[in-house]
## 1
Amino acid sequence: MSQHSPKAKYRLDYTAPNYTITDIDLDFQLSAEVTTVTARSQVIRQNAQANTLVLEGEALTLISVNIDEQPWSNFEVKPQQLWIHDVPDNFTLTIVNEIKPIDNTALEGLYVSEGALCTQCEAEGFRHITYYLDRPDVLARFRTRITANKEKYPFLLSNGNRIAEGDLANNQHWVEWYDPFPKPSYLFALVAGDFDILKDKFITRSQREITLEIYVDRGNLDRTQWAMESLKNAMRWDEQRFNLEYDLDIFMIVAVDFFNMGAMENKGLNIFNSKFVLAKAETATDDDYLGIESVIGHEYFHNWTGNRVTCRDWFQLSLKEGLTVFRDQEFSADLGSRAVNRINNVKIIRGPQFTEDASPMSHPIRPDQVIEMNNFYTVTVYEKGSEVIRMLHTLLGETQFQAGMRYYFECHDGTAATCDDFIQAMADASQIDLTQFKRWYSQSGTPELFVTTTYNECDQTYQLTVKQLTPSTVDQKEKQPLHIPLDIELYDQHGQIIPLQYQGRSLHSVLDVNASEQTFTFDCVPNNPVIALLREFSAPVKLHYNYSTEDLIFLMQHATNDFNRYDAAQMLFNQNIQENVARFNMSKSIALSEEMIDAFRGILLSTQLDPALIALIVMPPSENEIANQFEVVNPDAIHWARQQIILQMANLMADEWLAIYHTHQTHDYHIEHHDIAKRALKNASLFYIAHLTDNQCAQRLVKAQYAQANNMTDTIAALGAAVRAQLSCRHELMRDFEQQWHQDGLVMDKWFMLQATNPAKDALQQVKQLLTHRSFSLANPNRIRSLIGAFVSNNPVAFHASNGQGYHFLVEILTELNQKNPQVAARLIDPLIRYKRYDLARQQRMKAALEQLLTLPHLSNDLYEKITKALAD
Ligand code: 7MF
Ligand code: ZN
C-alpha cells in the first residue's frame, strides 16, 4: 500500500484568498549548490475573519521570518505550508530560505540545465522557490534582484525590464528586474547562465520599438533565425487578426535542453524546450520548423490570453490554454495551409484526445476534481478546449467572435477570470444564447452523432435525422444533450452544390444540433444528393453515417471542403480496415476493392489538389486512431490490417508512386509552403515505394535519397521508410546516422523514436539496450519521450506483446522515474491505465503492473492519482 492518500481538491470549493500580496521584492544569491532567496512581500488582509497567513512551500529550508522588519516567531512550519499567526492587517513580510537547484531532478522550481540555472513555476512550482500565496488569483508586481558569479553566469534574466546592474567583489555581479504588470507567481521566471544571443527588434503598430532577444547555448546561433522570424510573424499576426499589441519594451526567449514540456509563457521571459527553438536545414525537419512556429506563437499569444487575463484557479486552465491553442492554430493556418493544419489538429482529437476521454482519466475541459494539477495539462484541456473555442467561433462568426474577445479584455484585463466569464463576454457581445453550449465545459466524454437521411422524390425534400449520445465516462455517468454545430453540404450527381433551403428561406450550412434527436428538412432538392457531414470537423464528435463506398469516393472527388475530402478517404480506409480486422480473426487474407485503389490513384494524380493535402489523404489512419473505433482493441489485428493495406496500395499503384516521386523533387531547401508540400508528397511516395515487392527498387531509391539529402526532412524520410518497411539497408543507414549525429541530442531523438517504433519483433530488446546508449540519458525528458514514450504509445504491437514484457519494462522505468521526475513519469503511464480496452489476458497483466506500481515507496501524487483512478474503474 501507498503510505499516503493525497486528497482531491474540488472546483466548487473555490474561495477567495484571505490575504493578497500587491508587491514582492525577490533577492536571489545564486549558486547551483545552495541558493538563498529573500522574499519581501506587501501583504494585505482580504478577509476580516482571518488572522493566520498560510503560505505554500515545498522542499525549502526556512532561515527567518520578519514582519515589518522585526523578527517574528509566531509561526509553524507544516509539511507543505508555513502558518504565520496573528499577523496585522497590512504588513511587510520578509522570508529568507534556501534551496538546492543541483538536487532538483523534477525540473520544477529552480533547477540546473546544462550548467545554466532556470525556473519552471507553472502550475505550482513557485512554492519550490519560496513560501508564497502560490495561487493564480494573487497578482503582484515583481521586482527581482539576482546576484551570481560573473564567469559562470554572465547573463542574469527575469521578467519585465532590466532596471539596474552592477559588479561586486569576488567576481560576483548583480542585475535587477522590474515587471510593472501584476502577475501570479506561476508566471515568474529567472534564468542565469552563459549564452549566445540573437537580437532583433519589432516596431509595433503604435510605433513602439520592442527589443527581441533569443538566448541559446553557446554555438547554436546558426539555429535561431527561424525562431526569430516566427516571433516577429506572431507579433504582427496578433496585431492584425486579434488587435493585440505587445506591452513591455523587451521580449526574451531562452532555450534550455532540460525541460518537462514544450515551453512556458513567463511574462517577458519565455522559456522553451530547445526542441522548439533550434532549427537549421541539416538538423530539423519541416515538421520541426512548423512546430517551432506554432509553439513560439502559442507562448507569445499567452501574453494576452493567460498573462494580461489570467486564471482565477487551476480548474479554469482551459480559459487560457484552449483559447491560446485556438489562437496558435489559427496563426499556423493563416500563415501556411489551412487544410493541412486542420487535418493535423483533427488527428490529435481523434487519436490521443478520444483515447483520453475513454480512459480512467476522462475529464471535462474544465475539470471538477484534481489531486495533482500537473496531471491536467492534457489533450482534453488543450486540444478539446481549443475545439470548444472553435465551435464558438463557428457559431458567432469571425466578426462577432472578435467583438466578444474585445469585450472579454474590456471586462477582465488585469484580473484572474473564469471560463464562465469568457462565455458570458462572448454571449453579451454577440447576443447569442450560450446556455446550453456551456455544457461543453462541464461534460466529459466524446459525443456520438448518429445520422440518417431520406430523400423524397415526390416532393423533392431531403430529411436529415440526427441523434446524439455521449456514452458515460468513468468520471460522469449521466450525460445531457450538447449544442453541436453541424456543418453540412449537399451535392447533386455532378458534384454541384445544392443550396440549403426550406419553404422559400435559404438556410445556413451550420445546423444547430441541440436535442437528443431532431430532424432537419430541406426542400427543392432536385435529386437524391450526396451529403458532406461535419465539414471542417465542426465539432469534436464521432460521426456515424452509413456512407456507401460510392458516396465516399464521390466525396473524395467533389467535397468543397478539403477536410471533408480527407475525411471521406479516412472513412474509406476505416471501412476496409474493419473488414480486414474481421478477416484477420478468421485467418483470411487481405481483401481490397479495386474501386478504392482507383479512388486513391485519382487523388494521387490530381493536379488540382495541394500536394501536402494529397500526402495526408493517401496515408491510412494511425494504429491509435484505428483503435478508437473498436470496443476491444486487438493491436496485432489492427497492425496487420493497416500493414496489408499499405502493401497493397504500394504495389497496385507502383507506377504512380514512382512517377510522383520523380516529379516532386526539390533542390535548394526553403521553408516555404510550396516546397514543404512537395517534400511531403515525395516522401509519402517514398514510404510506399519502400514497401514494393520489388525490393531492389525500394532499396535503391531509399539509399539514394539518404545519401543525397541536403536536409533533415529528406534524411529522416529515407531512414523512416527503411525502418517502417524493414528494408535490409536500414541497419547500415541507422548506423551511419548514429555516427554522424550522436553528439546532438535533438537529432538523436529522431533516431531513438525510429528505434522505439520499429515494427520488428525485437523492438523491446532494442529499446532496453538503448537505455545505455551514449546519447541517451534518463535525466533528459526529451530523450525519455523519444525512446520510452514513443515505445509505449506508438508501438502498440510491441508494448502490448501478449507475454507482458512491455508492461514489465514500463514498470521498471516508472520505478526509477517516480521520485526523479514525477511529471514525466505520469505522462508515460497513460497507455497502461487504459487496460479496460484490451482482452482479459492483457487486462490482467496490465492491472498487475499497476498494482505493483501502487506499492512503490514515496509514490508521487502524479502517479498515485492515475493508478488509483485506473484500478477503481
Ligand atoms: C503549444 O501551455 C501547445 C501546448 C504549460 C506547459 C505550454 O504554454 C504552455 C504552458 C504543457 C503542455 C503543452 C503545452 C505547454 C505546456 C503547449 C505548448 C505549445 N503554459 Br504541460
Ligand atoms: Zn499554453
Note: The longest helix spans residues 379-412.
## 2
Amino acid sequence: MRAAAIGFELGLLLAGAVAATLLQLAGLPLPGVLLLVVSLYLLRQLYFLWRLARFIQRQHRLAPPFPSGLWGEIYRALGRYQQRARKGRKRQLRFQRRFREAANSVPDALVVLSKSQEIEWANPAAAALLGVRWPVHEGRSLTTICAQPGLAEYLEGGDYTRPLEVAAEQNQSIMLSIRVAPFGERKRQRLVVGRDITKIFHLNMIRRDFVANASHELRTPLTVIAGFVENLLCSALTPEPHRRPLQLMENQTNRMRSIIEDLLTLSRLEMDDTASNLAAVNLPQEIEHVVADARTLSDGNHEILVDADADLMLIGNPSELRSAVSNLVFNAIKHTSTGSQVRVVWHDEPGGPVLRVSDDGPGIAPEHIPRITERFYRIDKARSRASGGTGLGLAIVKHVLNRHDAELCIASDPGRGTCFTCRFAVASRLWREDRRS
Ligand code: ADP
C-alpha cells in the first residue's frame, strides 16, 4: 500500500473536517454538517465498490485511468493480476495448440482414455489405424470402436510390459503393435499407442521363413551324406588311410545336423509368442533324465548335485521345457573344466517356481552377459565348437522362457562360476495331487 494513497484518503477526511467547520461557522447545525460530510465520503466509497463489482461481474478489463487514493491502489493491483492471468492463459493456449499439432503429426495412433476408460481424445492417425475418430467417438469405449481380438483382455489385464501385436481391424494387411501407458492421478488414465509395424513384421516373417526353409532343405541332403559316410566307415572295403578323413566328415555332418535341428527348433519357437500344447510337466523327473544324460556327457569328470522339490510340477509345453533344462545343464558341463561342480535346484519361491543351474566354472565376463542369449554369440568360438556347441542353446532357452511368461537371469563371477535362474510365473505352479494328503 503506497503512502500517497493513504495520504490522499487522510487529505479527503481533512478537507471534509475543514468544510464542516466552515459550514458550522456559517451558522449550520453541527450534527447536520457532520452527517453531510460523512455521507459524501461514504457515497464515494460505495460508488467505487459498485464500479468494481460491475467490472468483475461483466469480466471487464480494469484499465487506466484509475481513481485516486486507496481505490486506485485496489484497481491497479487487480488490473495487474488480470493481466498476469491473461498472459498465463495465452501461454497455456499456445502450448496446448503446439502440443496438439505435434500429437497430430505423429504417425502413430494416440488415444487418451479417461479414468472410466472412455475415449477422451485421439489424433488423426488413430482414425486410420484404429478407426477411432475424435471428437465423433468421444465418450465411447475404445473396445466397442475397435474390436481387435485380444484388445479388451489386454486393456483389462493391466500388464503392459509387452506390446500387443494384432492385424488392424479395418485393414487386415496392416500389422499393429499396441502399447498402453497408464498416467494421471493414481495412473487411472491410459494413453494407447498403436504403431504400424507391417514392414518389420513382414521382414521378420521373411527371415524366419528363410531360416526355416533353408534348414529344412539342408536336412535331407545332409541325411544322405551322413548315411553314405556311415556306410563307408562301417564297410570293410574302405581303405585304412580313408578312415580318418571319413571320421572327420562324420563329426562335421553331426555338427551340421545339430545346428540345423537347433535352427528348426528356434523357427518353431518363433512362430508364436505363447507356448501351445500345455500340460502338467513333471519337471523333477525331466531334470532327473537330463542329469542322467549330463553324467554320460561328463563321463565322471563333474560332480552334479540335484536339489529338486519332487512335488513341484509346472504347467507348460513338455518338449520345450525339456529342451531348456537340457541346454542349461549341458552348457554347465560343456563350458566348465574337469572337477567342476554343477548344481541343479528346482523349488518354489514366493514369486513363483524357480529353476537354478549353477556351476563353479570359468564364469562369463560382464560385457558378454547382455549378448549371451543372441544366436551364434559365443565367448570363445573355437572352444564352443570343440565342445559340440551350436551357439543356439541359450537363444532357445530364452525363447522357451518367453513363451512360458518366465524370465532368465544370468549372474556370473568370472573365475568363480555362473548361475542361470529361470523364474516362472506363479500361475504356472502346480503341486502333485498327493502332496497335501
Ligand atoms: P553353445 O552351443 O556354444 O553352448 P549357447 O547359446 O548355449 O551356445 O551358449 C552361448 C555361449 O555362452 C557359449 O558359447 C559359452 O561361451 C557361454 N556359456 C554358456 N553357458 C556357460 C556356462 N555355464 N559357463 C560359462 N560360459 C557359458
Note: Residues 279-431 form a domain with the Heat Shock Protein 90 fold (CATH 3.30.565.10).
